[in-house]
Amino acid sequence: MRIGLFTDTYFPQVSGVATSIRTLREVLMARGHQVYIFTTTDPQADPVLDRQEQIYRFPSIPFVSFPERRVTVSGWVKVLLIAKRLQLDVIHTQTEFSLGVMGHLVARELKIPCLHTYHTMYEDYLHYVANGRLIKPQNVATILRTFLKHVDGVVAPSDRVLTTLRKYGIEAPIQVIPTGINLQRFQAPVDPQTLLTLREQYGYDEQTPVMLSLSRLAFEKNIKGLIDAMPEIIQAVPQAQLLIVGDGPAKASLMRQVKVMGLQAHVQFAGEIKNQFVHRYYQMANVFVSASDSETQGLTYDEAVASDLPIVVMRSEYTDELIDDPAIGVSYQKKADLVAGVTNYLKYGTNPEARKLRQAKMHAISAEVFGQRIEAYYQTCIEQRQGRQPKPRRWRLKVKRHD
């Protein structure tokens, strides 16, 4: 198949959506398909790499109230011409904004199937637009019903997303397909000296108990909750350290919080780390922590488990499925349970059978399984669309006989 992925967010931007799309591209190409990325311009993009990876970029500007993300401002005619030249078989949109709309228009023009993945729970992000006064949750539902009215299929990364879309009244077919992760990337062992050097970069030694938080530093990620719990964690594990990896609008506020609480000796900010080095951070830590309740698919949770790292995360529908044994991790709803879970892993680690249990869990969310399920969904949508196409009329020449 010739597949067009339409997205406003792609590398070099760092986000869970960008990671998800790149994983999808890689696994589909490994399965023999041709995959083309249609996305926004980016000042950090490498034109040579874009040509090699068949990435097409269109003029864009930073999104209002969300400047690290971009939206396309022109290029409709160029998009259509490129899509026609590539003879796309299916379009898969990954955004509800500019390139998502373009993808839908192109699919309609070319009369090919269009699928959509709903990545973001917008109700958790409304505060970014006029402090939540302009767009309300009911507006999100109305916009989505309009946007998804004519798509051939919707991919929901989790049951939580499926429930939300049904609540919004979405009538299009929906399949729950969790985003897969590249197990090889996270399971490949890193040289111990490299991990020790990384620890030393932050003043840790081999025995320092390290908690890892890795996400965009946004207010909805509730990293504040992790910092709030540090005094109790330090009381139980005096050498405990929290390393916060990522960048975003909440960083300044979080740094002030650390200073006000006098936690500078126990909390550090690593900033944004390039994707190819992230696995090293998982492997050098002792436990992964998250207080976010806005996750739609928990990619970082899966990456941590694949890296043989126990997790302590806020409870959700997704964690209820992922965490079924303490060897994998624990979920919590109260700060006391967060403290207890982290303290237990920092003091005692996990039992020797933990690795086997994590490996068994990982197969279901591997990139390979993800690719197989997406490919099957594409094929289903193609066949259903072909079945809806009117059959060509057969014209029979009638000859009037004259006896």
Automatic annotation (TrEMBL):
Q: What is this protein called?
A: Glycosyltransferase
User: Which ranges carry the Glycosyl transferase family domain?
Assistant: 198-354
Question: Transmembrane region positions?
Answer: none
Molecular function via GO: hexosyltransferase activity
- CDD domains (UniProt xref): GT4_UGDG-like
Keyword Zinc set for record: no
Q: Which organism is it from?
A: Limosilactobacillus equigenerosi DSM 18793 = JCM 14505
- Check the record and name the SUPFAM superfamilies matching this protein: UDP-Glycosyltransferase/glycogen phosphorylase (SSF53756)
The Glycosyltransferase subfamily 4-like N-terminal domain covers which part of the protein? 14-185
Key words, A-Z: Transferase
* Pfam families cross-referenced by the UniProt entry: Glyco_transf_4, Glycos_transf_1
